[in-house]
Amino acid sequence: MVDKKEESNDLSRPKAPLVPGVEYPDHPLVELTHVDKHFGDLHVLKDINLTVNKGEVLVVVGPSGSGKSTMCRTINRLETIDSGVIRIDGKPLPQEGKELAELRAEVGMVFQSFNLFANKTILENVTLAPIKVRHMDRKEAEDLAMDLLGRVGVASQANKMPSQLSGGQQQRVAIARALAMRPKVMLFDEPTSALDPEMVNEVLDVMVELAREGMTMVCITHEMGFARKAADRIVFMADGRILEENAPDEFFEHPQTDRAKDFLSKILTH
Ligand SMILES: Nc1ncnc2c1ncn2[C@@H]1O[C@H](COP(=O)(O)OP(=O)(O)OP(=O)(O)O)[C@@H](O)[C@H]1O
Ligand SMILES: [Mg+2]
């Protein structure tokens, strides 16, 4: 039997355009094909080909400025691309309008800074989008929010304002808020790098739990313990390219390129 995961990770697979309205049951959940992007003269993404399968946890690592955040932001079109195709669940990313808003709702994102609405309670932060975008009624949205806040361990904070919570608690609320939209995939861009060290693990624990539950995740992180524990695959980027893509043990034990060896020797000595 052909291993499905391997098959859909084969970058040499022909990339025929998908026909609208036709179901492609074995397509990857996220697929970037020949993606290029410039910021002015700077070529930040160079022929990026990447697939993320349903339930897969991908960890993206690489030196500062290598394009990790930019790549992540193109996946929900916070950044546009110059060429190539990005598909979510088989559908090319819409350019704008209602379709784009719908697609964004399927892609949850958690950033380094907490981005909670400062003038709303924790509960309101989590119920806002489900009510506005998903047209959920208030009671249903609140039940869902309390359930999610419980899962990330901050249910008792529901009626507080964000400023009354620690950074770790705020970041867990940010995760609950993203999950409230029932996303198909969650993107994390260094979600623990702004936290005090003692709060890092409480956020990583929530992410590990999410991964165990089968959430599809793309995580940019410098937390190599998390990467080893939770990742199905590590993607190493340098200078706007994906240089390596491998299982965590393989990547950490046997990096293939000098860039990855150099990167690992720097981060693993700290
Ligand atoms: N809005 C922008 N305008 C111009 N240049 C940008 C913009 N955003 C990022 N860049 C540049 O693009 C390159 C890639 O940046 P990006 O933030 O994607 O890197 P990164 O791998 O996430 O780095 P870090 O580990 O520091 O977060 C960098 O050279 C950066 O300075
Ligand atoms: Mg970044």
From TrEMBL:
InterPro entries per UniProt: AAA+_ATPase, ABC_ATPase_HisP-typ, ABC_transporter-like_ATP-bd, ABC_transporter-like_CS, MetN_ABC_transporter-like, P-loop_NTPase
A single cellular component GO annotation: plasma membrane
Localization per record: Cell membrane
Bias (Basic and acidic residues) ranges: 1-13
Alphabetical list of Pfam families matching this protein: ABC_tran
Enzyme class: translocase
Catalytic activity: a polar amino acid(out) + ATP + H2O = a polar amino acid(in) + ADP + phosphate + H(+)
Keywords: Amino-acid transport, ATP-binding, Cell membrane, Membrane, Nucleotide-binding, Transport
Membrane topology annotation: Peripheral membrane protein
Region of interest (Disordered), residue spans: 1-20
EC number of the protein: 7.4.2.1
CDD domains for the chain: ABC_HisP_GlnQ
Segments forming domain ABC transporter: 30-264
Any one GO MF annotation of this record: ATPase-coupled polar amino acid-transporter activity
Family membership noted in the UniProt record: Belongs to the ABC transporter superfamily.
The name this protein goes by in its record: ABC-type polar-amino-acid transporter
Gene source species: Bifidobacterium samirii
Phylogenetic lineage: Bacteria, Bacillati, Actinomycetota, Actinomycetes, Bifidobacteriales
